[in-house]
Design a protein that fits this description.
The protein is about 35% helix and about 25% strand. The chain has 10 helices and 15 strands. The protein has helices at about 5-15, 20-30, 35-45, 65-70, 75-85, 100-105, 120-125, 150-155, 185-195, 235-240; strands spanning about 20, 50, 55, 90-95, 115, 130-135, 140, 145-150, 160-165, 170, 180, 195-200, 215, 225, 245-250. The chain starts with a helix and ends in an 8-residue tail after the last strand. Residues about 250-255 have low confidence and may be disordered. One of its GO terms (molecular function) is DNA binding. Pfam families: DeoRC, HTH_DeoR.
């Protein structure tokens, strides 16, 4: 069996059961334990699973927004500050559901902008700023993620246009694929990409490779990446080769 096919079957087994032993996977796939261990090493390096004693596990439950928002705050603020310099007064921007994208909203007070978002934390941040024309996309409220999602959000996005989309992600694969852990969020993010003139990914170094089993987009859909990942990171190099502008931030020293 080809390695790629084995990897697909391993991930399928883990998604259905959450965990599996090396012995069980070897029996299911008619492969040696040594082969399965090598497969698990590779899949873990790509951020697709976590190895545990005797096997592997997948945890695809998204981290609640408030928990994710409380970590790497200084790094996220540095990325957000860099992103804010790209925006000109009078422009329209889409801010997606990510926690780093929320930090960007904090940088926008007093600016003359149109902000389109499905991020309830962004809405709460900007609702009192009369300089900003604020459009909240419709949809089902996903409480833990503090976002609105579903077909209504997608329908709303078909009616708008934006100069910029600033988006987050759960992980970036070595080939430059942008990943999410939550299948439900992907259609809205793809709709955002379709209506944004320029697409900028905001991702701190923990997203290399991060997590995620669902592809949001590839390098061909990105115009820029703002990150504190090392300039010689393999994924950053791949994105540059694909024509994506990789914009570094100064390393943060404080986690707020």
């Amino acid at each position: 069996m080809l390695a790629e096919r084995r990897h697909q079957l391993i991930l399928r087994a883990l998604r259905s059961g959450g965990t599996a032993s090396v012995a069980d996977l070897a029996e299911r796939l008619d492969s040696s334990a040594a082969t399965i261990r090598r497969d698990l090493l590779k899949l873990e390096a790509e951020g697709l699973l976590t190895r545990v004693h005797g096997g592997a596990v997948i945890d695809e439950e998204p981290t609640p927004f408030n928990d994710a928002a409380a970590v790497l705050v200084a790094e996220k603020d540095a990325i957000a500050a860099q992103a804010a310099t790209m925006i000109e007064d009078g422009q329209s921007i889409i801010l997606d559901s990510g926690t780093t994208v929320h930090r960007l909203a904090l940088q926008l007070h007093g600016r003359r902008l149109t902000v389109i978002t499905n991020n309830l934390a962004v809405y709460d941040e900007l609702i009192g700023d009369e300089n900003i024309d604020l459009m909240l996309l419709g949809g089902m409220v996903i409480r833990e993620s503090r976002m609105l999602d579903g077909f209504m959000a997608e329908d709303n996005l078909r009616q708008v246009h934006a100069d910029w989309l600033f988006m987050g992600a759960c992980g970036l694969r070595p080939g430059g694929q942008v990943m999410d852990t939550t299948v439900a969020e992907v259609p809205a993010r793809r709709a955002m990409i379709a209506v944004g003139d320029k697409v900028v990914l905001l991702a701190d170094k923990s997203k290399f490779p991060g997590t995620g089993m669902v592809k949001i987009c590839g390098p061909e859909d990105l115009d820029a990446l703002i990150t504190n990942a090392p300039e010689d990171d393999a994924t950053c190099m791949t994105l540059r080769e694909a024509g994506v502008k990789v914009i570094p931030t100064a390393p943060a020293t404080v986690d707020g």
